[in-house]
Design goal:
Elements: E1 10-23, E2 45-54, E3 57-63, E4 70-76, E5 84-86, E6 93-99, E7 105-111, H1 115-132, H2 140-149
Antiparallel strand pairs: 1-2, 1-7, 2-3, 3-4, 5-6, 6-7
Length: about 180
């Protein structure tokens, strides 16, 4: 008998060929994390990043550029959340909570050389969770689809503005 997870397909949300990984110092308090506290000039690892989705969960996978061997993986159940956090002083750096197969977790820093790559990563996660999140169920059919399948498809938004060929003419009486 097949398990439920066997039939879930994996869709690729984002691939970035160059990402740097940093060891980050432990948090001393609840203050915001700063990338300036990391050794940005000497990353601990460099490789490729793939963001993939399986059902409701997105996975940030860090892989070797050449062999494709998995270095680390971060399951993301919600975004924004504890699995992926932004830093306070740069838009190019994030904190990931990586997990191994035994459930042990650690926090690492990742950084992109280009702001555009960081933006793409951010948008890929936002788009995934905007389509999957039950808070976004705005119609009965979407809510039913979420209850049955656990996923809401992204449908184009309805156009509610006036059609371009429709003109309004207003006559104002002359008050002399």
């Amino acid at each position: 008998m097949a398990t439920e997870g066997q039939f879930e397909y994996e869709s690729v949300l984002c691939v970035k060929p160059e990402v740097n990984v940093y060891r980050i110092p432990p948090r001393s308090s609840n203050r915001a994390i700063r990338a300036a506290d990391w050794k940005l000039d000497a990353p601990d690892w460099s490789g490729r990043m793939r963001v993939v989705a399986r059902g409701k969960v997105a996975y940030v996978k860090l892989e070797d550029k050449i062999s494709g061997e998995l270095f680390a993986q971060a399951p993301v159940d919600e975004y924004p959340g504890i699995a992926v956090e932004t830093v306070s002083d740069s838009s190019r750096y994030f904190v990931l909570r990586i997990q191994d197969d035994n459930g042990r977790s650690a926090f690492i820093g990742i950084g992109f050389g280009d702001r555009g790559d960081a933006f793409d990563f951010n948008v890929a996660l936002q788009d995934h969770f905007n389509c999957v999140c039950p808070k976004r169920c705005t119609t009965r059919s979407n809510a039913l689809e979420f209850l049955m399948n656990g996923v809401v498809t992204c449908a184009p938004k309805k156009r509610i503005s006036r059609p371009p060929a429709l003109f309004c003419v207003v006559t104002v009486p002359n008050h002399d």
